[in-house]
Amino acid sequence: MALPLSDDRPVFPPEIERHIFELSALARPVLVPKLIFVAWRIKQWIEPILYRTIVLGRARSTMDGYPAFTSEALLSAIQTKAPGFIATAVQNLSIYDSAAGYEEILSACTGVTNLRVLSLDTAFSAHIPSTLTQLYVYDFPHESSAFLFSQLTHLDVMGLNFLDIDLDAFHSSVALLPHLTHVSFSDRDYTPIFLRLLRGCPKIEVFFYCDQDDEPLLDQETLAEDPRFVVLRLRAGTMWNWDYDWLMGVHCGRDYWYRVERFIQKRRSGEVDRFNPGLNRTSKRYVSPGMA
C-alpha cells in the first residue's frame, strides 16, 4: 500500500536518504530552499549546505547552482537561526565590497576557513576566524599577522597598484606565518621581494604570479630556476576571472592552485622544461575581457 504524501516516514534507509539529499544539495546549493520542505529531517540535514559558501557584494561572475546572498539576508539569518548555526555552517565567505554589517557578519562566521575580502582593515582584523586557512585579499595587514593567521596555508595578495606597500614589513609578516605553503600575487609592486621570499621561506611549496605585463621580472632568470615559481601571463585586454575561479576551488577543488600544483609536478618530473616557469594561458572560462 502506498504511503500518503503527508507521511514523514522515510522510504529509504535514513543513511542512504541523507546521502542522496546531501549530494543533491552539494551539487546545486540553490535547490536547498525547496528541498528543505520535503520533510523536517531533510531540513536538518541539508540547510547548513545552503550557508556553506556565501558571496556578498558585487561580483563579476557567479557559478550556476549557487544562491545569491545579500548582507541583509545573512544578517537576518545570524539573528534568527539557532545559536552557533552560522558559526558552524559558513565555511567559505567572499565579501567583495565594504558595507555596513560586514563586521557583524565576519564576527558571527567563526568557522570560516576560506575568506575572500577586499581589505582587512582594523575593523575586519578584529574578527579574523582562528580557523582561517585560505585568504584572498587586496591589502594584507602586516601587524600581528603571525598571531592572526596562525593556521593560514594559502595566501593570495591580489594587490592594488595605488596602495603604498611597505615591502620589508610585508616580507617580515609573511615569513613569520608558520603554516604558509602557497602564496600568490597579481601586482607587480611586490616583485622586488619574490626572490627573498622564495629563498627565506623553504616551507613555501607553490609561488604563483599572474600578470598582464610581458616585461621581464626582476631576478627573472634566478626565479625561473626554482620549480616552485610559476608565472601566468594573460593576454592584453583580458583579466583573470577570480570570482569564478574561487567558486571552482570551493565547489570541486579545481582552482588555479590545483593547476599550478600540477604544473610544478610536471616541471619536477621533466615533463615540461624545468627552467620554464610559464603556465599556459587557460580556457575562456577563467579569463574574461578586461574591465575599465
Automatic annotation (TrEMBL):
InterPro entries: LRR_dom_sf (IPR032675). It comes from the Eukaryota. Gene3D superfamilies: Ribonuclease Inhibitor (3.80.10.10). This is Uncharacterized protein. It comes from Roridomyces roridus.
